[in-house]
Write a structure and sequence with these properties.
The chain is α/β, with parallel strands linked by helices. It is built from eight helices and seven strands.
Length: 268
Amino acid sequence: MKLTMFDQSLAEYLTRFKYYADRFDDISRHRTELERLVDDYSAFITDQSNSNIWDELERQGAGGLNGLAEELRAYSARCVATLEKYRALKLIKGDTGITDYFRNIEDCIEKEFGSFQVTSKSIVLLVGSGAFPMTALLIAKRMGAEVIGIDIDDEAIRLGIKVIETLGPELKIRLENTSVEYLDYIKEVTHIIFSSTVAEKYDMLERLHPLTNEEVVVAMRHGDRLKSLFNYPMKETDDDKWKLVDTVLHQNDIFDIALYKKGTITHG
């Protein structure tokens, strides 16, 4: 019975995400419904009982889970990107309300680098900064670090710049619509954060190896098991290039974090 209800819940979430994925508009017509959907889904993903059901389904070799996970991950990521745009528009119009999903993300940011602290001398690269660059704002404001955010979505960059101008015009943040290969200052970056909804993040990590300095620390946001329904999962890396040195796992957080350093560097 529980397994049937679980399957039905996933199918319903997918139907709803598909409906809202391409319905962004500047008048925020669907914002309230989308906020409720993403908050509900966040609670579903972090519910321990649902995690147990997911593990049971995997033990049974449920064949349809992988395809369903890929679809849910793709459509929920698009809806989160849309929700960030709505939140940016809302802020620009003077409303600073926050949803449960964004509150969870901000809690996660506090734990981002573990023992590899960001300081005022750090230069942080955020891959997949989005339309409401919370990570950039929090790091720049609390640590005084310089933050570079990149995103391939023109509209996300445009709205993100307006959010920065509203909430932190004095902060050392710049947002660019570019890829990592075209950043002239990539060798100076000390910390890199990959958004959990960037599908190509491990391919990008591979390309970053020859471009970055030997001391750089990478925080790879990801989600495995049930959390893979909302985040792209963790992958194996070549230890000679990128060595996994720590993980930050919390059941109640929407994503987990894998920390990497260059393979020639030991954790300590």
